[in-house]
Structure formats: structure tokens, C-alpha cells
Write a structure and sequence with these properties.
three-stranded antiparallel beta sheet, AGE/CE, N-acylglucosamine 2-epimerase, about 400 residues, 6-hairpin_glycosidase_sf, isomerase activity, isomerase, mainly alpha, Glycosyltransferase, 12 strands, about 55% helix
Length: about 400
């Protein structure tokens, strides 16, 4: 393989896809020009199926639109879309206690609130990225304020309803990993020691609690002190989440002049998770595995969702940048070949989100409350940047 040619081909592909496929699709079918913000429940052809708005995605697309503006091209429509999502968040998505809703109507009437604080994380990175694009410091300050409030919710007993009753005391990987990325995005625009402290705390927690060498795995749920919980839920490996965590840590290692300990941790997680996740029979990254190789409980356990593939594309490029090891460029080729063969919709644009294990389409919608313009465009933007740096 001529690596330079290979990387250049992908750099061109990623940029073209963002400019001519992904962003136009969501700008046309997702952006709500009447109420502000973005719809995500759209069918294969972009037609609206449900006007309910995912609060997650107001922040997610607010981030993506500004991220594309900052790193792909200075398209003023993208910046305006980011601002539209942020304005909608500020007007409609916070409850009186400061905790965000999960679903609202198209004009912002609250429908549902959950115990999670992911909406806060996405709102914060949207404001941080918008601040980076415009130089408006107030949005960086708002991002930091949301981040600190999120920490308060997580650190104060009783503020958020626990997932389980006291008989099953546990801690989860998801929020631990997302705080790394959230803090690092905000740190791009505002300097506060709480951000790096949170990154350090999250990485320490991953090492102490979630890494289980006896299974060569990072587990999704463990006991309060990292105890292995020998139940269906306690044995879950989510390869996509683990691989996403790996590149978050690689990004932090890079920020610290390629810190060797962080890089070693990230590569270990990536290598283990690839072994668990890569489907040797059909290709692609599988949804869930059981760390004792027992049958996984989740009914989507053997499906191929869009986002684990995109996270793996980023992670393998990062690993190649960090190490120069050809195995990672080969892994990038494996995952990219499979993903680009099965997910893009050549007729209507954008990507399918949900495939059966063999790569056939399970359902053709382009979005819902959980799939929308985030993982795919983030992969294309980040991977374009990595390819250009490598070249």
C-alpha cells in the first residue's frame, strides 16, 4: 500500500462527503427554519416522520455545524445552523433546576426528562465550538458553567436518580468516558483547572475500575470499587464505546506531547476492543459481547450500528499517527472498506444506521432520537484533519 496515496484519497473523500452529502442532507431536511434547532426523526428520503426533538441532538448538531465551519470551510450557513441549535437549547431545553430535558416538542414544550447528563455535555461542546468559531467568549463561559453544573449533578447524592436500587450499587463507563471529550473540547476555548482535573479523574477511573485484564476488556458496568458483576449486564462489553474511549485518550496523549502512559493505555483498549468487536465472519464492529462468551442479552447484540464503525475509523487513524505501525492503517482499511460498502445510501444520500449482522439494512430511516448528524460527520471531519496532518 502506498500510504500517502491512501491517506490523500481518504482526505479528499471525507471533505467531499461533508460538503456535498452529509451537511446538505441535514441542512435541507433537519434544520427547523420556523422554531429553530434541528429535527432528526427523518425517513430514508429525508421526509419528516416525527417532529419530536432530541435535546441531545440540539447540542450535537450545534457542535457539528461549528466544527465543520472551523475545520472544513467557512460556510456561514453552517455557523448560523449552530447558533440556531444553541438558541433553541437556551430557550427551551433547561428545566428550572438546571438539568436538561431529553425530548421536547418542535416548539420546545418539554416531553421527557431522564437521569442522564449527556444532553448537558453536548450543549457544552456546542457552545465551546461556536465560541471558537466566532471569538464570542460568552459562549465559552456558558460551556464551562454547564460543565461545572454537570459535575455538581454527578457528585451530589440524590441529584440524579441511580440506575439501580442500593442492592446493585454500580458505576458506568459511558459518563466516565464522555467527560474526557467534553472537558477537552471546552479546554480549547477557556482555561480552567477543573477541565484537566476531570480528564485525569476519568482516565484514573478507567484504569482503576473498568479495565479488566482477566477478560482483556473494558467493561461497561462495574461495582463501586471496580468489582466484576457476574450478571448479564455486568458482563457487557460495548466495543464501539471502548474504541471511542481509546481515541479520546489518544487525543489527550497527543495534547500532552504523546504521553507514553496514556498512549499505551489507549492502544491496549483499542487492540482488546478490536478483538472483541471485529466480526471475523461478516466484517464490521458488532454491538455487544459478553466477557465470558456467554450469550449477550441485548436484542441488538449482533447488529452493526453506524456509530461503532465511525469511532473505529477515527481510532485506527489516531493509532497510526501515534505509532506509525502499519497494522493500524490495515485496520483502518478493513473497517473503512466494510463501512463504506454497507452504510452509505447511494440513492438518497447520508447513511443507514441499523444493519443486520450480515450487513443488510434492518431499517432505512436516516434518523431518530438517537441517530442524527453527529457520529458520521464528526468522523469525517476528524479523519480529514488526521489525514492532512499525516500527509
Amino acid at each position: 500500500m502506498n500510504t500517502a496515496e491512501y491517506l490523500n484519497k481518504w482526505a479528499i473523500s471525507y471533505k467531499d462527503d461533508i460538503i456535498n452529502n452529509i451537511m446538505p442532507f441535514w441542512m435541507k431536511y433537519g434544520l427547523d427554519k420556523e422554531h429553530g434547532g434541528v429535527y432528526t426523526c427523518v425517513n430514508r428520503d429525508g421526509s419528516l416522520m416525527d417532529t419530536t426533538k432530541s435535546v441531545w441532538f440540539q447540542g450535537r448538531f450545534g457542535f457539528i455545524a461549528a466544527y465543520a465551519y472551523n475545520n472544513i470551510e467557512k460556510n456561514p450557513q453552517w455557523l448560523a445552523a449552530s447558533k440556531s441549535c444553541i438558541d433553541f437549547i437556551e430557550a427551551h431545553c433547561f428545566d428550572t433546576d438546571g438539568h436538561m430535558f431529553f425530548e421536547v416538542t418542535e416548539d420546545g414544550v418539554p416531553l421527557r426528562k431522564r437521569r442522564y447528563v449527556f444532553s448537558e455535555g453536548f450543549a457544552a461542546i456546542a457552545m465551546a465550538e461556536y465560541s471558537l468559531a466566532t471569538g464570542e467568549k460568552e459562549y465559552a463561559e456558558k460551556a464551562l458553567e454547564i460543565f461545572k453544573r454537570t459535575q455538581h449533578f454527578l457528585d451530589t447524592p440524590g441529584m440524579l436518580e441511580p440506575k439501580y436500587l442500593p442492592a446493585m450499587s454500580s458505576r458506568g463507563h459511558s459518563i466516565t468516558m464522555i467527560l474526557i471529550n467534553t472537558a477537552s473540547r471546552i479546554r480549547m476555548v477557556i482555561d480552567d483547572p477543573v477541565l484537566t482535573e476531570q480528564i485525569d479523574a476519568s482516565i484514573a477511573a478507567l484504569r482503576k475500575y473498568f479495565i479488566h485484564p482477566e477478560f482483556k476488556a473494558l467493561l461497561e458496568m462495574v461495582g463501586p470499587n471496580g468489582e466484576f458483576i457476574d450478571t448479564c449486564n455486568g458482563r457487557v462489553i460495548n466495543p464501539g464505546h471502548c474504541i471511542e474511549t481509546a481515541w479520546f485518550i489518544m487525543e489527550e496523549a497527543k495534547y500532552r506531547n504523546w504521553d507514553k502512559d496514556l498512549l499505551q493505555l489507549a492502544l491496549q483498549i483499542l487492540d482488546w476492543s478490536w478483538e472483541w468487536g471485529w466480526d471475523k465472519e461478516f466484517g464490521g464492529i458488532i454491538n455487544f459481547r459478553d466477557c465470558r462468551n456467554l450469550p449477550a442479552q441485548d436484542y441488538s447484540q449482533d447488529m452493526k450500528f453506524w456509530w461503532p464503525q465511525t469511532e473505529t475509523i477515527i481510532a485506527t487513524l489516531y493509532a497510526y499517527q501515534a505509532t506509525g505501525d502499519e497494522k493500524y492503517i490495515q485496520m483502518h482499511k478493513q473497517i473503512s472498506d466494510w463501512t463504506y460498502t454497507h452504510f452509505p445510501d447511494k440513492e438518497y444520500g447520508e447513511w443507514y444506521g441499523y444493519l443486520h449482522r450480515d450487513g443488510t439494512v434492518a431499517q432505512p430511516a436516516k434518523g431518530n432520537l438517537f441517530k442524527g448528524p453527529f457520529h458520521i460527520p464528526r468522523m469525517m471531519i476528524r479523519s480529514y484533519m488526521l489525514c492532512k496532518e499525516l500527509l
